[in-house]
Amino acid sequence: MDKKGLTFRFAFSSEIKLMHLIIETIEQILQRLGIDTEKNWKVILALREIVTNSVIHGNKSDPLKKVEVTVTIGDKIEFIVKDQGESFDFEALRSIPHDPLSTNGRGLYLAHQIMDELIYEFKDGNIIKMRKRI
After folding, report:
1. Which of the residues 31, 71, 103, 113 has an alpha carbon 20 to 30 A from that of 133?
2. Could you say which DSSP state residue 5 is in?
3. Which residues, 6+ apart, have CB-to-CB distance to 119 below 8 Å?
4. In whole numbers, what is the pLDDT of the chain averaged over residues?
5. Where in the chain does DSSP place strands (E)?
């Protein structure tokens, strides 16, 4: 199957159960397209962290607010995750967590370590763009 230029878009209300459904769907798409298993679980982990942040921190789990996820597959996998939250200090949060024993505060750092590119912008909500060569 030719993987060049495939794009999938998902939009869902900020509910954890819907987030899990979307992530599982994206994971199945990558598997069916033959994306390397080790690379697949890593990019899915990065995506899960960013989407979780969008639902919980960006949109404050408000079901009236939407999260949008766009997946583009070509010579790299690109994820664009957009929420309707307030802006935040991206640079500070993508560095090593201040409390190594904390169970929170690792999502952006982890995504930064896994992906080749991690870009943040604020435009009517938070937008995180992530890319990984395949």
Report:
1. 103
2. T
3. 128, 129, 130
4. 89
5. 6-13, 66-73, 76-82, 117-122, 126-133
CB-based burial, 15-53: b 16+ in 10 Å, e otherwise: eeeebeebbeebbeebeeeebeeeebebbbebbbbbbbb
pLDDT, average across residues 45-61: 96
d(CA 97, CA 75): 31
Distance of CA 37 to the CA centre of its chain: 18
Segment 90-101, tens digit of pLDDT: 776 656 666 666
Query: Is-contact 44 26, C-beta < 8 A?
Result: yes
Going along the chain from its start, the domains and CATH numbers come out as: 6-133 (3.30.565.10)
How does pLDDT run across 7-38, given as a tens digit for each residue? 999 999 999 999 999 999 999 999 999 888 77
Q: Are 100 and 30 in contact (CB under 8 A)?
A: no
Task: Specify the 3-state DSSP secondary structure of 129.
Answer: strand
Looking at the chain, the number of H-run helices and the number of E-run strands are 4, 5
Cα separation, 69 vs 52, whole angstroms: 12
